[in-house]
Design brief:
The protein is extended. The chain has 382 residues and is an alpha/beta fold. It folds into 4 domains: 74 residues, no CATH class; 81 residues, no CATH class; 116 residues, Isoleucyl-tRNA Synthetase, Domain 1 (Orthogonal Bundle); 61 residues, Ubiquitin-like (UB roll), CATH 3.10.20. Strands 3, 4, 5, 6, 7 and 8 form a 6-stranded mixed β-sheet that branches. It has a 4-stranded mixed β-sheet with strand order 12-11-14-13. It has 14 helices and 14 strands.
Length: 382
């Protein structure tokens, strides 16, 4: 029996693992029902799910299970593709020419181990000579003293020498940085090219997040009341991340974290009321860092995973001011900033008294003012 077939009904057994009379009791099956969410690669899904659906429907027809379908929702995660590096050997020689100069020669591309290619696609030539015996006496045509490799996006595999060892990434950047970067690469369902050069940006973000709580050995968390801007930044994040988790849009959540942390850093926010909730929202994405901040900087003796998920407050998301374009006879000339709830008369007065108004009003008569709240003021003159 194929492996996919042999594991077809495991989800049913999970509901009632100690039952020695039946695969699953009707009571347990009616309580747990079908699997809510199945996440798997497309190849796995087309193998395993075909068998699972066959067996489930067979058991349903015989009254052994209560649901016709075994899985309520399916998501196929995309493949992480590799970034392959190439060296270019001049034909009939053991001389390799930099990718930036290869058009001047008749060359053959050869895939090279990405672990000996550094930032900027620069090859470690000594490591290359030691990589394989046939390259021990290799010569190089360099570009300004460096050998620049070519690259292409391909399926990650050992034969293409483009496999990234996650242990190396964890050792260099930490597990949370690796986890966030994989989410940041793109939508869950999409195939995404791995680029080690891009992980540095996520690593800088992690350090900036940490710097909200710590400066060296000094804890920056205080009991100050949060400002309106602090609350707006946090609750905008809570609303975004809560919706993204439900929709499996993890890449846009990471972008929202970066925006929020930048805003809080600019606001010099150290308020415990803000930073506690920030740690809770970060926890599903960067659990080790969130736990360290929760117990270290914030002083809790419980785990952050036991904290209640915060709810956003729409009142904090309302804009206090609005920027409106002012146009004369349909042509935009300058902008004004008014209170978000400003009356029409106040908007008209601000538009006419603005610094840039005199130039366009000189020698003219105002015939009409059209106000579109929150967007534009059009002044008709003649």
């Amino acid at each position: 029996m194929p492996g996919f077939a042999g594991s077809s009904a495991y989800y049913l057994r999970y509901m009632d693992p100690h039952n020695d009379k039946a695969l699953v009791s009707r009571e347990a099956d009616e309580y747990w029902r079908c699997v809510d969410l199945y996440i798997g690669g497309s190849e796995h899904a087309t193998g395993h799910l075909i068998y699972s659906r066959f067996w489930n429907k067979f058991l349903f027809d015989y009254g052994c299970v209560v649901d016709d379908e075994p899985f309520h929702k399916l998501i196929n995660q995309g493949m992480i593709q590799g970034r392959t590096s190439f060296v270019y050997r001049i034909k009939d020689t053991n001389t390799f020419v930099s990718a930036t100069l290869k058009d001047n020669y008749d060359t053959t591309p050869i895939r090279v181990d990405i672990n000996i290619v550094g930032d900027g696609d620069v090859l470690d030539t000594e490591a290359f000579r030691a990589w394989r015996p046939e390259f021990a006496d290799a010569d190089f045509v360099l570009d300004n003293g460096r050998y620049i490799c070519g690259h292409a996006v391909e399926k990650m595999s050992k034969s293409m020498h483009n496999v990234v060892n996650p242990d190396d990434m964890v050792e260099r950047y930490g597990a949370d940085t690796l986890r966030l970067y994989e989410m940041f690469l793109g939508p869950l369902e999409a195939s995404k090219p791995w680029d080690t050069n891009g992980i540095d940006g996520v690593f800088r973000f992690m350090k900036k997040l940490w710097s909200l709580y710590w400066r060296g050995d000094d804890c920056l968390v205080n009991d100050n009341e949060p400002t309106r801007d602090n609350l707006k930044s946090l609750h905008k994040l809570i609303k975004k991340v809560t919706a993204d988790i439900e929709g499996f849009s993890f890449n846009t959540s990471v972008a929202a974290f970066m925006i929020c942390v930048n805003e809080l850093a600019q606001q010099k926010c150290g308020s415990r009321a803000i930073l506690e909730q920030l740690a809770v929202v970060v926890a599903p994405f960067a659990p080790f860092t969130a736990e360290a901040l929760w117990q270290g900087a914030l002083g809790h003796d419980t785990s952050v995973v036991d904290a209640n998920w915060p709810e956003h407050n729409e009142d904090y998301l309302k804009e206090d001011t609005a920027t409106m374009a002012v146009s004369f006879n349909g042509k935009a000339r300058y902008n004004i900033t008014v209170a978000a709830d400003a009356a029409r008369e106040d908007i008209e007065k601000t538009a006419l008294e603005a610094e840039g108004a005199a130039k366009w009003l000189e020698g003219k008569t105002v015939r009409k003012i059209i106000v579109v709240p929150g967007k534009i003021v059009n002044i008709v003159v003649s």
